TrEMBL record:
Keyword Transcription regulation carried by entry: yes
Highest taxon of the lineage: Bacteria
UniProt domain HTH araC/xylS-type: residue ranges: 289-387
Signal peptide boundaries: none
Keyword DNA-binding: yes
MF annotations from Gene Ontology: DNA-binding transcription factor activity; transcription cis-regulatory region binding
SUPFAM superfamilies xref list: Homeodomain-like, Periplasmic binding protein-like I
Protein name: Xylose operon regulatory protein
UniProt gene name: xylR
UniProt xrefs under InterPro entries: Homeodomain-like_sf, HTH_AraC, LacI/GalR-like_sensor, Peripla_BP_I, XylR_PBP1
Keyword terms: DNA-binding, Transcription, Transcription regulation
Amino acid sequence: MQMKSHRIALLFNANKIFDREIIAGVAAYLGSTRAAWDLFLEEDFRLRLSGLESWHGDGIIADFDDPAVAAALSRSRIPVVAVGGSYADDSSYPDGVPYVATDNFKLIKLARDHLIEAGLRNFAMFSLPEAQENRWAQEREKAFRTLMAEDKMEAQVYRGLGTSAAAWDEAVEQQIQWLHSLPKPVGIIAVTDARARQLMQACIIAGIEVPEQVALIGIDNDPLARMLTRIPLSSVIQGAQEMGRTAAQLLDQMLHGARLQGTRVLVPPIGINIQTSTRHEAAKHPHVMRARHFIRQYACQGIKTHQVAEYVGISRSSLESYFRQELDCSVHDVILRFKLDAATEMLAQGDRTISDVALSCGFTSVQYMHAVFKRELGCTPRAYQDKAKDQAKDQAKAGREQACA
């Protein structure tokens, strides 16, 4: 007996990591069930919104953070499941549509709790300009303001300018002015990784040490943002794949007659990918702080101790003395530690060869990286990579079992 196939449209922007994770969650649901769906996914779905009412499909899962999508589907004749951000005000949710939301309050609380645990006492938020398409960002602002008010603290929120080539220089100048105005050290939550990356660049241009002076955390855990920053970026991991699975499950139920109007599911964040940008340690000496800031940016480019000393503006022997006093190690030890951290991160991703990792992380040879791994971690780079692959497989298996439960 042949199963009925349903024609399902996914209205998401596949250029964004959050949307791609939602789509991956839909695919994971289909892979774990016997549902037969023919999926329709436009490269830019917004070009087809005007003719969507004439599409002869069976169901739609759509990004309701986009006001144009919400408006286009307000009178849909076929089942629709909405996906988007959560709202503090219940009246902000669309009427009569099942809604799967990322929990904006918990995203911000998790980020702020992490900054508190890192030892920060001053906090700020880097948001986006107020606009209908940025409602989710404004909801994250509300969450931040609420948390700060609970602790009787002033909420420092900066929206800045939108992203456009014509305004890049002005945007960076304004970001630097805002950064200089903040009490230091400060923990800053950016509403996305893309926004965090912009602020990271402003810090580097202005010579503001990250994370000693500014500890920075984004949201999305976007691999591209990590690759484009000199200093590895900490980020809150949204439960976007779980949102996609949940949305697909709700739509599947609707296709079989379930009436789910008004159903609302809030999906909490998974956790935090903790990287260098929030590993805040209060340095006692400004020379050590400045040196570590330089090392974070250029350790993998093969810098030497004398180059760090030149950047700081003191003699090599003086810098070594400060490092021994404050960190109980040499400048070379710190450079090597950053190179090792970068290598373990690349090996864990599993898509790079050992020789490629050695070259990318500034090791003079594969043999030298091998020796460093054996000395510092007690294993070879290959063994570390194999262990990381096994852990990833175990996590994926656990995710599939959870989806089937």
